[in-house]
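Hi everyone, sorry if this is the wrong subforum. Our group has a chain we'd like a structural model of before ordering constructs, and none of us has done structure prediction before. Sequence below.
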Amino acid sequence: MATFRLAVEYDGTAFHGWQRQSRARSVQGELEAALSRLTGAPARVTGAGRTDAGCHAAGQVASATVETRLEAERLRAALNAHLPRDVRIVEAVETPASFHARFDAMRRSYRYLVVGAPSALHRERAWVRTLRCVAADLQRASHPLHGEHDFVSFSKASPDTESTRCRVTRARWSGRGGRLRFDIEADRFLYTMVRRIVATVIREAEAGRGGAAVHAVLDARDRRAAAPPAPAHGLYLMRVRYPRVGWIPRGRMNVVG
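Answer:
Right subforum, don't worry. Here is the predicted structure as tokens:
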């Protein structure tokens, strides 16, 4: 038996999210099916983040323990031969048996893309939306997000959520020419949190209310105070940080946006 850390990229357009589902296509389901075909035994894969239906990933991280004689790089190549074209393993490393992709993660990094003009190329890759503000306005409105807060206002109720407190270490808007991106890093994320933050920050920046209004949404601790979530297809899980090894995968931040 060997445990592997897998860095995974996927186009979420045709998936009903990361998590395995009995009657719908999922990324976890495809990975487990590929591992089972490769090893001839049932396989279980754990992901660092449970992305929603339609969300993409440049650097999801997964862990799996399987019975195999393949070394990590050969396992990566063999898995890619068994996976559909919208899922790829970009990195594979053998780890101690105790490694857990979700519970060992220190921070996660997401990116959201907004395109300000109608685009056939980006309709399933970004939120195509006319913007009445610029990156600097959005950055000022995002300032209250930094630090540890109760982010319940920016979440959807979920029975799996034990705490709604998160520590945000980065929240940055960048770009120009009608193409913007929002990068956010935190120790954990709540269900639909990034998408609700994006929609709320844009709403308040366009209205000229800025950071004070975003701070008020945080303090309200009321899901009705935030804007409805931005579309899922603009969101990407970029990478995950672990103790002693840093951000995984490495060198992938320019793949998206």
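For your construct planning: The CA atoms of residues 43 and 96 lie 18 Å apart. The chain has two domains: 2-95, 107-242.
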